Amino acid sequence: MRIMILGAPGAGKGTHCKRIVERYGVTHLSSGDILRRERAEGSELGRKAQSYMDSGALVPDELIVEMMSKAIGNAGDAGYVLDGFPRTVHQAEALGASLAENQNGLDTVINLKVDDDLVVERITGRRSCPKCGAVYHVKNMPPKEEGICDHDGAALVHRPDDTEDVVRNRLSTYYEQTKPVVDYYKAKGTVHDIDGNGDPDDVAALIFDKLDVLTRK
Ligand code: AP5
């Protein structure tokens, strides 16, 4: 299965990709996670990406397209779920050209829709595990023990770009540069809009409804 999840910052893309991976065995390809790994390793790409990420701007297309093409090429036979890529129409066009070259297409595009006020509340309360990538929220999805990952006991971290000011910049960037990507795929007729405002289990059920159909094909 080749799935794409679109949505504003904090819409729940990462949260639901983890559930999709558990249910369908696909590889999670998150451009944000890959960039954070590159930064943690101190690579040239990580150093180039740093200032863009910390201010809520997008990392330049040429860096992202090369990074994600490599990740897609290394994904397993079960397929993948793209999270956070593409984020500009140029990235979407480059992805389309590269998939066509390999005679592959996307099976479906899920667009998670969440109100802006909820996004700010979700992101400022998010905590993540630096070791396994598990995502929590101090109120909505707290770990069993405050500040500690349920899976591996690591101390949870607050991302540097998760402050209210940077979230508002990330939202503006989303409306200016990434919302047109939703329209780009809508014009191709492959997008399922999903209401992401509700309880995580209810949102997951709506997503699985769309994806289960693909497994029966
Ligand atoms: P990235 O890491 O991709 O950030 P993002 O798209 O802004 O998305 P988030 O990770 O913030 O949110 P999410 O939708 O995954 O939400 P989550 O599930 O965690 O990108 C970071 C930066 O990298 C960018 O700003 C840019 O600089 C750069 N970058 C990345 N990709 C790029 C690209 N293609 N091109 C250029 N630059 C790129 O949920 C959020 C919180 O809400 C969590 O606490 C969670 O527990 C909670 N939550 C989730 N769902 C629910 C629910 N239903 N109810 C209640 N709480 C919920």
Structural summary, described in words:
It contains 8 helices and 7 strands. Helix content is 51%, strand content 14%. 31% of the residues are buried. It is globular and about 45 Å long. With 217 residues, it is α/β, with parallel strands linked by helices. β5 and β6 form a beta hairpin. The strands form 2 sheets. Strands 2-3-1-4-7 form a 5-stranded parallel β-sheet, sandwiched between helices. The protein has a two-stranded antiparallel sheet with strand order 5-6. The model has no long low-confidence stretch (mean pLDDT 94).
What's a concise summary of this model?
With 217 residues, the chain is of the alpha/beta class. 51% of the residues lie in helices and 14% in strands.
**H and E order:** EHEHHHEHEHEEHEH
What is the 3D form?
globular
How much helix is in the residues? Answer: 40-55%
Bound molecules: BIS(adenosine)-5'-pentaphosphate
Largest sheet, if any?
Answer: 5 strands, parallel
What is the arithmetic mean of pLDDT?
94
What class do helices, strands and sheet pairing give?
Answer: alpha/beta
Q: What distance lies between the first and last C-alpha atoms, to the nearest angstrom?
A: 11 Å
The value of Rg in angstroms is: 17 Å
Number of strands: 7
Indicate the proportion of strand residues.
5-15%
What strand line-up does the widest sheet have? 2-3-1-4-7
Q: Pick out the low-confidence regions.
A: none
Counting DSSP H or I runs of 4 or more residues, the number of helices is 8
